[in-house]
């Protein structure tokens, strides 16, 4: 593994030298943080399965990869248009981590909203970025956050002035290209939402079918008092792509954070979602859906820290696994001492469609206060035979019935989605992933017919 | 008179000199091969047993103590422990109940333990008050008629070497984990039960009956084998706080159930939890595992854990046989500064295997409690079924309750369900009871007992009654 770490470090040094010659010296704080990130990464190395947080996820596919860094953001307009979510949005697009102005759409930003690529935010006023950046996700969080800190160059900065209500969703689009040699990118997203602001942020990961790149994303979201933020991570990467991402949220008093973490693509995908409920009345809602096929590996780790009294969290994750796919769900709720009157609910349901699919679930509670209502439930099983039978008595053939029930299983998360464009996209993708034996054509017809009734 | 003087001199040397080594009952603290050889020799074990112990010792040397549990304790100096001490002679024990700590007696009173048993439990030289030998004898005859072997581990090594060779270490191998390896190297005694084919053991077996037999010590080894269609219910420990000088307890329990066999293993553990600051309490690091080898076999673990400063214990079931069943019912109560990390592992290997887990944790005072469980379903375990219910009750705002359930499922026909809740005794619940004239303390005890009911009803009758009383005693002063 040491050789692997060294290869990443060599690239790090090479990139630093290149940057110095082309752009001159960076502000001291950035350079210092890069070095800290690289040093931390060198010390930690890639996580092995002996580390509890990575017990079920083998990252050798990433560690052994020989990735270059992308230098341009060329992407055909036509194919980009086909991939882009069909909705009105303020949009930033990154191609293999490099900002593409041509594919972005930020003309009509309302007053009080700043949406700009990280490189520009740094160039304009790097000190304003230096404060919040890295405050939530430091280099100690994981070897990947350290690696991200070492390599970070591009990403998005979203700033909402107090009281701003953003009319259209903010779309951060990450495109993965079919490159001759695989590339890696380390996007960094920073969202600072002022008091009482309201917005929807969509992170959309998608790419060309033959792509096989590695994305290592770190996102920090800071919510002020009474802020309402809905966050989507819609991941439909090509099946050979690798992705590790960590999303950390800090919530002020009476704020509400709603997350949709939808993982449909990628060969190896790991998401860490952490929310710190720091102010009374703060609320976190985590919704998740993952669908694994082939040899896909999907790992979701969530953590809610109830750091203040009267805070609420609700979590609902659903997983569907077929073929030899491997799913991991680890949901943790921590209630700090004196954080009384807490409610924390967590539910995880998994559907195994194949005998070779595997799910490792670990819902955890760590509670140090007594006046709390916390629960978690985790189930794994197959479709309810009685439900299949009930549909068959209504003249639906067995395979269609199974398909419908699988869709309905995912539906519980999908129907929470407020944006039609997103929910339709997910529904189509899920339907498209259903095994052929489930009689797709019949399925759509039946679904339509049922919908008409 | 030179010869007489000579004789005297010889005798004197004999009295004070070199031979005391052979007579010595205790080895100096420390652990190396010679300690193990000493233990093995002292117990007159055959060579193969010594080799088996040494093999475990060599594995132990290469291992490190587990650090993953949610426990906090200073590192244990394994070289500071004395690994063998013969039972105390009667002269060294308290001669009557008057010499016993009155606090201990008060607890016995509250638990309603019969007078003659109190002495035995407090470690008083028992023969004077309670002739347990006669009880044991009648009891043994009855078992002998049924064909059940129930004896100490050392006897079994002598009398049934073939069975020991066949089964010992097959469920918990010597190198299974740090504490199991240590136990395998230095275990001093324990119980051995063998129930032959088709026999239902005529009575509930209990270590309690062997109270006056050799002190089993801190490294206890239990092996229970049920042949085809045999059944046994085994009770370990007792509700009364046991007097014990050993701080570290690392026991190993192995259960083997062949086809259609049923083993029910109940534990009530109430060892010294330490003083108010948690000092001096017992460390209970136990490896318990049952192997459902045969088809349709069933192993059921029931435990009530109220004692020990630190509990590290995961009674598990390997469900190998087709349609075999594993069950785990647990109540763990922690108060003061106690820490418990306990739970179970259900490994589904065979087709149609089922497991059922009910865990109730009650944390009070400044204690910390964790449920840690694993449900693993292998690719061949078609139609495996698991249900887990895991509830925690918190009393007071300085305690902690945690749940770490692991589910590893590799079979689409498996159905695995896990439910966990954490809550406190609601003020409205208390108010409801109090408005009907029930005192606060009684109300709490009632609610707590209701909370634990699912587990208590799995206990043998007498045990269940005692367990309820025990719960009250343990939680005394936790409320109000």
Structure in words:
The complex is a heterodimer of chains A (453) and B (480). Chain A is α/β, with parallel strands linked by helices and 453 residues long. Chain A has helices at 2-23, 28-44, 60-63, 77-83, 118-130, 143-151, 385-392, 398-414, 420-433, 440-452, and strands spanning 68-69, 90-95, 98-105, 113-117, 155-160, 170-176, 183-185, 188-193, 198-207, 214-223, 228-236, 242-251, 256-263, 268-277, 283-292, 297-306, 312-321, 326-335, 342-352, 358-367, 372-381. In chain A, strands 1, 4, 5, 7, 8, 10, 12, 14, 16, 18 and 20 form an eleven-stranded mixed beta sheet that branches. Helices cover 29% and strands 28% of the residues of chain B. In chain B, strands 3-5-8-10-13-16-18-20 form an eight-stranded parallel beta sheet, with helices on one face. In chain B, strands 9-11-14-17-15-12 form a six-stranded parallel barrel. In chain B, helix 3 packs antiparallel against helix 4, helix 11 packs across helix 12 (440-456) and helix 12 packs antiparallel against helix 13 (461-474). Chain B is globular, with a radius of gyration of 24 Å. The model of chain B is unreliable at 9-24, 124-135 and 209-216 (pLDDT under 50). At the A-B interface, strand 20 and strand 21 of A face strand 18, strand 19 and strand 20 of B.
Question: Whole-number average pLDDT of chain A?
Answer: 92
| Strand elements of chain B, count | 20
Q: Decide which structural class fits the backbone of chain B.
A: alpha/beta
- The end-to-end span of chain A amounts to 59 Å
Poorly predicted runs of chain A are none
Proportion in helices of chain A: 25-40%
């Amino acid at each position: 593994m040491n050789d692997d770490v060294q290869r990443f470090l060599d690239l790090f040094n090479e990139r630093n030298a290149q940057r110095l010659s082309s752009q001159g010296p960076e502000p001291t704080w950035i350079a210092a943080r890069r070095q800290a990130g690289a040093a931390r990464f060198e010390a930690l190395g890639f996580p092995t399965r002996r580390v509890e947080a990575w017990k079920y996820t083998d990252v050798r596919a990433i560690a052994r990869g020989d990735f270059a860094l992308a230098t341009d953001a060329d992407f055909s307009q036509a194919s980009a248009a086909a991939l882009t979510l069909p909705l009105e949005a303020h949009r930033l697009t990154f191609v293999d981590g490099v900002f593409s102005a041509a594919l972005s759409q930020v003309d009509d930003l309302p007053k009080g909203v700043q949406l700009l690529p990280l490189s520009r935010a740094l160039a304009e006023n790097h000190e304003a970025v230096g404060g919040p950046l890295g405050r939530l996700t430091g280099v100690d969080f994981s070897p990947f956050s350290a690696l991200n800190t070492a390599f970070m160059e591009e990403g998005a900065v979203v700033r909402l002035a107090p009281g701003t209500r953003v009319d259209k969703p903010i779309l951060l689009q990450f495109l993965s290209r079919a490159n001759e040699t695989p590339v890696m990118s380390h996007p960094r997203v920073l969202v600072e939402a002022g008091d009482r602001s309201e917005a929807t942020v969509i992170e959309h990961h998608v790419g060309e079918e033959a792509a096989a790149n590695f994305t290592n994303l770190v996102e920090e979201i800071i919510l002020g008092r009474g802020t309402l933020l809905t966050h989507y991570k819609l991941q439909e990467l090509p099946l050979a792509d690798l992705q590790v991402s960590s999303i950390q949220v800090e919530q002020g008093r009476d704020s509400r954070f709603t997350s949709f973490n939808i993982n449909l693509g990628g060969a190896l995908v790991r998401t860490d979602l952490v929310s710190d409920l720091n102010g009374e009345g703060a609320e976190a809602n985590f919704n998740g859906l993952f669908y694994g096929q082939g040899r896909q590996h999907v790992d979701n780790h969530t953590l809610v820290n109830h750091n203040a009294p009267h805070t609420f969290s609700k979590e609902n994750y659903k997983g569907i696994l077929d073929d030899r796919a491997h799913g991991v769900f680890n949901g943790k709720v921590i209630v700090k001492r004196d954080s009384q009157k807490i409610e924390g609910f967590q539910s995880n349901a998994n559907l195994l469609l194949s005998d070779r699919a595997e799910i490792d679930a670990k819902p955890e509670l760590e509670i140090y206060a007594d006046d709390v209502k916390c629960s978690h439930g985790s189930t794994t099983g197959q479709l309810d035979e009685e439900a299949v039978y009930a549909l068959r008595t209504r003249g639906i053939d067995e395979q269609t019935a199974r398909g419908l029930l699988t869709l309905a299983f995912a539906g519980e998360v999908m129907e929470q989605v407020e944006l039609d464009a997103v929910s339709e996209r997910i529904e189509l993708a899920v339907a498209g992933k259903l095994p052929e034996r489930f009689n797709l054509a019949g399925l759509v017809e039946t679904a339509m017919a049922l919908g008409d009734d | 008179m030179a010869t007489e003087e000579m004789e005297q001199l010889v005798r004197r040397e004999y009295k004070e000199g070199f031979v005391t080594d052979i007579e010595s009952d205790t080895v100096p603290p420390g652990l190396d091969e010679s300690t193990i050889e000493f233990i093995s020799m002292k117990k007159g074990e055959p060579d193969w047993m010594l080799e088996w112990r040494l093999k475990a010792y060599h594995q132990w040397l290469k291992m490190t103590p587990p650090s993953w549990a949610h426990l906090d304790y200073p590192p244990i100096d394994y070289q500071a422990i004395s690994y063998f001490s013969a039972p105390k002679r009667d002269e060294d024990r308290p001669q009557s109940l008057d010499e016993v700590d009155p606090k201990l007696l008060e607890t016995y009173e509250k638990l309603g333990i019969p007078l003659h048993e109190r002495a035995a439990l407090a470690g008083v030289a028992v023969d004077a008050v309670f002739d347990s030998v006669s009880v044991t004898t009648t009891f043994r005859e009855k078992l002998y008629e049924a064909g059940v072997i129930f004896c100490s581990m050392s006897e079994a090594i002598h009398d049934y070497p073939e069975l020991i060779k066949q089964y010992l270490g097959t469920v918990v191998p010597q190198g299974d984990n740090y504490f199991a390896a240590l136990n395998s190297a230095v275990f001093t005694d324990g119980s051995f039960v063998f129930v032959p084919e088709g026999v239902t053991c005529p009575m509930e077996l209990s270590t309690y009956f062997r109270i006056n037999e050799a002190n089993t010590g801190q490294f206890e080894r239990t092996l229970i084998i049920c042949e085809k269609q045999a059944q046994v219910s085994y009770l370990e420990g007792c509700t009364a706080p046991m007097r014990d000088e050993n701080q570290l307890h690392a026991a190993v329990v192995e259960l083997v159930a062949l086809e259609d066999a049923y083993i029910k293993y109940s534990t009530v553990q109430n060892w010294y939890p330490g003083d108010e600051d948690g000092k001096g309490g017992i460390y209970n690091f136990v490896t318990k595992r049952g192997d459902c080898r045969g088809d349709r076999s069933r192993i059921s673990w029931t435990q009530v854990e109220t004692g020990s400063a630190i509990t590290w214990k995961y009674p598990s079931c390997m469900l190998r046989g087709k349609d075999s069943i594993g069950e785990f019912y647990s109540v763990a109560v922690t108060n003061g500064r106690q820490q418990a990390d306990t739970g179970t592992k259900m490994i589904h290997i065979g087709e149609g295997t089922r497991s059922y887990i009910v865990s109730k944790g009650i944390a009070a005072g400044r204690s910390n409690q964790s449920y840690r469980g694993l449900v693993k379903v292998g690719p061949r375990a078609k139609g495996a079924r698991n249900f887990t219910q895991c509830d925690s009750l918190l009393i007071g705002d300085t305690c902690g309750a945690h749940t770490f359930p692991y589910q590893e499922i590799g079979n689409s026909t498996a159905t695995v369900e896990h439910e966990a809740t954490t809550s406190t005794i609601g003020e409205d619940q208390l108010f409801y009871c109090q408005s009907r004239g029930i005192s606060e303390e009684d109300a709490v005890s009632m609610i707590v007992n209701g909370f634990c009911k699912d587990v208590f009803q799995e206990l043998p009758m007498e045990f269940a009654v005692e367990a309820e009383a025990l719960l009250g005693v343990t939680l005394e002063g936790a409320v109000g």
